[in-house]
Amino acid sequence: MKKKKLLILIAVLAVLSAAAVAVRMTDFDKSDETEDTSIDLVSIPEDSIEAITWDNDGTTLCFVKQDGEWVYQEDTGFPFDSSNLDNMQTAVSSIVASRMIEPDDSTDLSDYGLETPVHTVTVTTADGDVTIEIGNETFMKGSCYVSVGDGNIYLADLSLSEAFDYSLNDLIIMDEIPDMTTIRKFKVTLPEGGYVLEERTTGDIDEQSGEEVYGWYLSNGEGVNLTDTANSFYLMENITELNWVTCVAYNMTTSEELSQFGLDVPRATITVTYTVSTEVDSGEVNEDGSHIMTTEETDQEYVLEFGDTISSYIFVKPQGSDKIYVVDSEMIEKILNTTYDDLKPSEDGDSD
User: For 4, which of 148, 165, 182, 199 is 20 to 30 Å away at the CA?
Assistant: First the structure.
C-alpha cells in the first residue's frame, strides 16, 4: 500500500523542572571525576540488524533491510536518504554509557524524560528485539538519559538521541531548486492569458560605456512595455528564491492523483529561463602545460506548476517530478495577479 501524504510534524520542547536539575546534580556528585564509570550498554553487530523502529513526536516509523538495502516498511517505494538510517544503525550498534544511576523509591522518571521517552527505539535482529528508551538531555549538556529495561538509568552521548530526531518528512529526498541568479526570461501561463518578463535592449547607448542599455519588458495582451527593473526583480525573486515548506505527497503520476491537489489541470505554470555558467577545457594549454579553462554559458528552463490553495499555502509540482510540495501562497498570488501598473517605471522615468 502506498502512503502518499506526509504530515508536517512540529517538534515539542521538553521543559525541565528545578527539582530535576537538583536530582541530576546530585547524581553527578556520586562519582569521582577521575573514576572510569563507562559501561558497554549495547553491542550489536551492524550486519545483524534487520529493522529499526523509532517514534518521533507520537509517530512510529519502521525501516527494514531488504537485500541489504533500507526500505520503509509501509511503502517500499518511499524515496528517502538511506544515509540517515545508516547513521541510526551505527548509533545503536554500540552504546557506551558514561554513568549509571540506580533509581530508588524517590526517583521520578519524568525528571529524566523517561516516563514518556523522547524516543523509543527498537532494534530487530535474528536473535530478537532490543529496546532503548531515550530521555532528556542532561543538565551538563552533551549527554542524554537512557534506559534499556534493566531498571537503571544511564547517561549516553547526546548523538544517540539526535540520530533519531527524524520524522518521515525529514527523511524524504526533495527536489532541488536550481540557482537561478542569472535570469533571462520569466513566463507566467494562466488558463486565460498570462505575461512574459524578458530582458531586452532599450535601443539606447550608455554615454559612459558606449554599450547598449538593457531593460526588463512586460509582454501581455496589452502590448510590450518597459518596466522598473527593481520592481521586476522583486517580483521574480518570489520564484528564484523559493523554498519548499514541505513535501506533502510523492509518486503522484496519474491525473486522478494530481486532481487531489488541483494539478491535473494546473491553475498556473511559471517558466524561468536562466543562464548556467560552466568552466570547460578550451583545448589549449599555457606555457607551463596547464590547461586553459573557459566559461561556457547555456540557458536552462525551470518549470513549476501550481494548483489549489490550502490555508496559507499553495500546492506546487516541479514539471517532470512526481512529488508535490506546498509553498507560501501569498507570494505566488502576487505573481499571478501582477499587472503593468505594479511594474511600470516611476514617474521620473528611471527604470534602473
Answer: 165
Residues with Cβ < 8 Å from 208, sequence gap 6 or more? none
Q: Name the β-bridge partners of 243.
A: none
184 alpha carbon, distance to own chain's centre: 28
Pairwise CA distance, residues 80 & 71, whole Å: 9
Sheet holding 246-249, edge to edge: 223-226, 212-220, 194-205, 183-189, 268-285, 291-310, 313-318, 324-328, 246-249
Note the pTM of the prediction, 2 decimals: 0.75
Q: Grid coordinates 577521575 are at which residue?
A: 34
Distance, CA of 127 to CA of 62 (rounded, Å): 18
Residue 226, classed as helix, strand or coil, is strand
Using one digit for the tens of pLDDT, what is the confidence trace for 40-78? 999 999 999 999 999 988 899 999 999 999 999 999 999
Per-residue cell: 9 = 510534524
H/E element, 66: strand 59-66
Domains along the chain with CATH numbers: 18-171 (2.60.40), 183-343 (2.60.40)
